[in-house]
Design brief:
Radius of gyration: 18 Å
Order of helices and strands: EEEHEEHEEHHEHEHEEEHHH
Helix content: 25-40%
Oligomer: single chain
Strand order of the largest sheet: 6-9-10-3-11-12
CATH architecture of the largest domain: 3-Layer(aba) Sandwich
Distance between the termini: 34 Å
Number of helices: 9
Length: 258
């Protein structure tokens, strides 16, 4: 495996929505085995980046590239990006009544592998992953997200990552709507999956999730650009000082952007 295969590289990414430019030249690299936290105020473009990476048709890429495994994934449809190993954990997972979670996971696993997966084989895989994540087996018999609490929906996302053996996970504000206990449980699940085979881009407003998931790098996204990068101490600085230091016009910020 080449170094390029181990890395997602975003270069000069510009994205517009309904004619308005949201991302204004994003540059970012995430390697397998690394956890990167992307933080920023509301409207900075965090969710736009997440949806663009997975190919949502609403988001128009006007320039730039996203490479992974030697390919520019922006040329691929969403299902091909997923087969390549990309995964998006939604901020607000959708409820789908009538579709049992275990059936959904079997079909998703079949699509990811590109080969047939028998019900018995898929159930063994699902059970094994649920055991690893300390989830009750009845969970897989429920309809997809129907009646799930906020924490259960997010644990379901983590289970999907595990079953699909995702290689580049984009977690879009996974901490949204979680109480303290649910945040801890979901974070523990993510920590169990992190390792040399997966890169993680964790998108969040707050430092609280980073108390459970220790990032290797923290990036600040403001007005569609990454204006600063650093270690985990940067998240603590943001918690203490907020985003005003980056949103107020000043010469230092202009130098970083240029």
């Amino acid at each position: 495996m080449t170094d390029t295969d181990k890395m997602m590289k975003i270069h000069g990414l510009r994205v517009s929505v309904e004619g308005k430019e949201i991302l204004k030249g994003v540059n970012l690299e995430v390697r397998k085995g690394e956890v990167h936290a992307l933080m920023g105020p509301n409207g900075s473009g965090k969710s736009t980046l997440a949806n663009t990476l997975l190919g949502h048709p609403k988001y128009q890429v006007t320039s730039g590239h996203v490479w992974f495994k030697g390919q520019d994934v922006l040329t691929l449809p969403p299902d091909e990006r997923a087969k390549l190993g990309f995964f998006l954990a939604f901020q607000y997972p959708m409820e789908i009544p009538g579709i049992r979670l275990n059936n959904f996971l079997r079909l998703a696993l079949k699509a990811r592998r590109g080969t047939e997966v028998t019900p018995i084989e898929s159930w063994r895989i699902i059970q094994a992953k649920m055991n690893d994540l300390q989830m009750d087996k009845y969970f897989a018999e429920r309809y997809l997200n129907e009646g799930f609490s906020g924490g259960e929906k997010k644990r379901n996302e983590v289970l999907q990552m595990a079953v699909l053996e995702s290689e580049m996970a984009i977690l879009d504000e996974t901490d949204s709507g979680l109480d303290i206990d649910a945040l801890r449980i979901v974070s523990e699940g993510i920590n169990k999956l992190s390792g040399p085979g997966m890169g993680i881009l964790l998108i969040t407003h707050y430092q609280r999730m980073l108390s459970y998931i220790e990032p290797d790098f923290v990036h600040v996204l403001v007005d569609g650009q990454v204006v600063r990068s650093g270690g985990k101490e940067l998240a603590l600085e943001l918690e203490a000082k907020g985003y005003d230091q980056f949103t107020q016009p000043n010469p230092t910020l202009q130098e970083v952007r240029n």
